[in-house]
Specification:
The complex is a heterodimer of chains A (about 220) and B (about 475).
Chain A: H1 3-24, H2 29-54, H3 59-85, H4 97-118, H5 124-146, H6 150-170, H7 177-197, H8 200-204, H9 209-212
Helix pairs in contact in A: 1-2, 1-5, 1-6, 2-3, 2-6, 3-7, 4-5, 5-6, 6-7
Chain B: E1 2-3, E2 6-7, H1 10-27, H2 31-55, H3 67-96, H4 102-124, H5 128-146, H6 152-187, H7 196-202, H8 208-226, H9 234-241, H10 244-270, H11 279-296, H12 303-324, H13 326-358, H14 369-372, H15 374-387, H16 394-409, H17 411-436, H18 452-466, H19 470-483
The chains are: A mainly alpha (about 220), B mainly alpha (about 475).
Chain lengths: ~220, ~475
């Protein structure tokens, strides 16, 4: 593999981790959704580059899904939903921004240590990709636990899923990648439809998950 | 199977029948007929599943039948069949009192069949990616069914299940990708590197470090779906708020399917000498779930929530048994899984009718059940006695085997195991006492119930405890040997 191929793949995967960090401290839903769109855009570029250097044309489908569905359709839909639910106000973090960022740095370090150590024999590109992908997955999880708002939890889940797609495309020649990315898109569509159709706002008067906790069967 | 020259492949049957039935249920104009269609479809699927045990088709790159998943498929389709009978009377009552609308009944039956399809697909899948997709599909359908009543509690339970389940399957996918990465240098690029039957024969040459990390992700991911503590948070809510037939299928079947996925990967790791032994991890999570859930049985106010914790407890015991490993513990684990599925779904059948006649799931509002509804009350008592492990019922046998094999191998762990089981038994009986005996409380409407499924299950559990047919013993021993 020539140096420039590797460098560009590396750059794109690394950018994905950086955009994940950007998501962590967004305290408005509107800007959070914009950053998520950027996240999906970087993913699409990264997958397309992998498709090019691996000479795997089917991966272009995955890239196209990321570009059209995740970078355009989902953010636009969610923008409309939050406007209709009237919640484009500030979002509260459970933990402070500083602590969240520190935890995020710790998680990235952890994923580097774990993945680089166990993949010594894999080819360097797949290695780096997996390490970055795990970092994106863990940052997505971190976002899901630090946010209380249902919409930002979903954004956390979607960026986690972007990390998985990155890992799947980095694993050269992996079958079913396209199918899996389609399956995930369906899952995400379900979640978004769920927010809207279940009318969490209407039922609970809020999408703040902490408020949902009051309805738990245990505390009746 | 051949009928006058027309070959019916039972393997295709267990997949196509539910898929077709799901499509039919969605479009059938007469919504009351969908319940009968549901029963018919599960009957056909059960027949196909039993035929599958004799047909034994060769493994292909997507589908595989061996003795291990044959056991799971027969159990799944059988409980699916009896639950569909129970579901018909349960859903009929829900329609009468107006909790469900005709369109949601149609949706419910379509989803029921999609769930059966997804679970069968997960069980017969020979491709670890396909298995993952099937388990995702099963999760999605149960999420939709848990939220079907559209109440605050049901929606919150569905949302929580959805988010936790999604995180679980996301982690499982990462683990699956890592398994592919480990297999690629040995098996080569492409489809073969995800085919389980290929992987298990070549696993000895895989990079052990990569397999270890993969298993941790798979354990956390599929373990969420098994309901292992501390990843169980979705389970009590989902059981308590969904329709009772779904609680029965969740506890009796879906948890098993997720456990099956874990067992497949455990076999993969066992084939690699240098990889970590999954046993201790599974033993730890199993014991943690058992002890935690046993204590949670006390002071539950919702009857379905209480039995949901009981399911966590028993999944803990089963995971513990498979974690200990070896022929006897594996045998005990398989037996325990089978009798737990039968007993727990029988209990949920009883609980479903109890909740319907009393009009509530609150334990405080029901009492003296043996006086007002003797058949239902004694059925529930029998079910709880079975789940608590009273001799001569089947769970006594399997728990005895688990405990004795644990004492033989790990005496210290066995003490924790026995402690957890005893705490659980006491908790269940304290609660049962106030439900079944004492002053009758709450309304005493006549149930319109079908007791047949409940008593079939309980009779089978009794038979399993008293006399195991030698064929079955040999079969289970064989499967236990496969599990290593």
């Amino acid at each position: 593999m020539s140096g420039i191929d590797f460098d560009i793949a590396h750059l794109l995967a690394g950018s994905l981790v950086l955009v994940s960090f950007l998501e962590l401290y967004q305290d408005r839903l509107y800007s959070l959704l914009n950053i998520y769109a950027a996240h999906a855009l970087v993913l699409a570029a990264s997958v397309a580059w992998q498709a090019f250097i691996q000479d795997a044309p089917h991966l272009y489908i995955t890239a196209a899904i990321a570009l059209v569905f995740k970078a355009i359709v989902i953010p636009v839909t969610l923008h409309r939903i939050i406007v209709r639910l009237g919640i484009h106000r500030e979002i509260e973090n459970v933990v402070g921004v500083g602590i969240t960022m520190l935890a995020g740095i710790g998680l990235v370090a952890l994923s580097m240590v774990v993945m680089l150590r166990v993949t010594r024999e894999a080819d360097p590109l797949a290695r780096e990709d997996l390490a970055f992908a795990l970092a994106v997955v863990l940052l997505g999880l971190l976002m899901m636990v630090t946010r209380r708002n249902a919409v930002s939890q979903v954004v956390g889940f979607m960026s986690l899923e972007n990390g998985l797609v990155l890992a799947a495309t980095g694993a050269k020649g992996m079958p079913l990648v396209v199918e899996i990315s389609v399956a995930f898109s369906i899952l995400i569509a379900f979640i978004v439809i769920g927010i809207f159709l279940f009318r969490i706002r209407e039922r609970f008067d809020t999408v703040d998950v902490q408020a949902l906790d009051r309805f738990r069967g245990e505390r009746r | 199977m051949t009928f006058e020259g027309v070959t019916v492949n039972p393997l295709i049957g267990v997949l196509v029948v539910p898929a077709v039935a799901a499509a039919l249920s969605a479009v059938l104009p007469d919504y009351r007929a969908t319940a009968r269609l549901n029963v018919l479809a599960t009957t056909l699927t059960l027949i196909c599943a039993v035929a599958l045990l004799f047909a034994k088709p060769q493994p292909r790159s997507y589908l595989l039948i061996d003795d291990l998943n044959g056991t799971f498929i027969v159990l799944t389709t059988f409980v699916g069949f009896t639950t569909s009978i129970f579901s018909a009377s349960y859903i009929g009552h829900e329609l009468d009192i107006g909790r469900l609308t005709p369109s949601s009944v149609r949706f419910y039956h379509a989803m029921y069949q999609v769930l059966m399809f997804a679970m069968n697909l997960a069980l017969v899948a020979n491709n670890i990616g396909l298995m993952w997709v099937a388990i995702e599909l099963a999760t999605l359908t149960t999420v939709l069914m848990v939220g079907i009543y559209r109440t605050h509690e049901a929606l919150e339970a569905a949302w929580k299940y959805f988010i936790l389940g999604s995180v679980g399957i996301a982690l499982a996918l990462f683990g699956t990708i890592l398994v592919y990465m480990a297999a690629r240098p040995v098996v080569g690029e492409g489809l073969d590197a995800m085919v389980w039957s290929v992987l298990v024969t070549r696993a000895g040459a895989f990079d052990p470090a990569l397999l270890d990390v993969a298993f941790v992700f798979l354990l956390l991911g599929y373990g969420t779906k098994v309901g292992l503590a501390p990843l169980h948070a979705w389970l009590p809510d989902a059981h308590a708020e969904g329709p009772t037939p779904i609680s029965a299928v969740l506890s009796g079947l879906l948890l098993n399917v997720a456990l099956y996925a874990l067992l497949r990967f455990k076999m993969l790791l066992a084939a690699n000498a240098a990889a970590l032994t999954p046993g201790p991890l599974m033993v730890t999570l199993g014991l943690l779930s058992l002890v935690f859930a046993s204590f949670m049985l006390y002071r539950r106010r919702d009857i379905k929530r209480m039995f949901a914790y009981s399911s966590i407890e028993h999944m803990g015991i089963i995971t513990f048994a498979f974690g200990i490993g070896g022929p006897i513990a594996n045998f005990a684990g398989l037996l325990h899984m089978t009798v737990h599925s039968l007993t727990k779904s029988a209990i949920f059948f009883a609980v479903g009718h109890v909740a319907q006649v009393k009009g509530t799931q609150r334990i405080a509002d029901m009492g003296g059940l043996t006086v007002t509804h003797p058949v239902l009350g004694w059925g529930l008592i029998l079910g709880v006695a079975a789940i608590a492990g009273f001799p001569p019922l089947g769970i006594f046998m399997s728990e005895f085997l688990v405990v004795s094999s644990a004492f033989a191998r790990e005496p210290l762990l066995a003490i924790i195991l026995v402690f957890g089981i005893l705490v659980g038994v006491a908790g269940l009986f304290l609660q049962l006492n106030s439900i079944a005996f004492g002053e009758p409380r709450g309304p005493s409407a006549k149930p319109q119930a079908s007791y047949v499924p409940m008593f079939i299950h309980l009779a089978l559990v009794l038979v399993a405890g008293v006399y195991m047919p030698p064929v079955l013993v040999v079969w289970f021993q064989n499967v236990a040997g496969l599990l290593g």
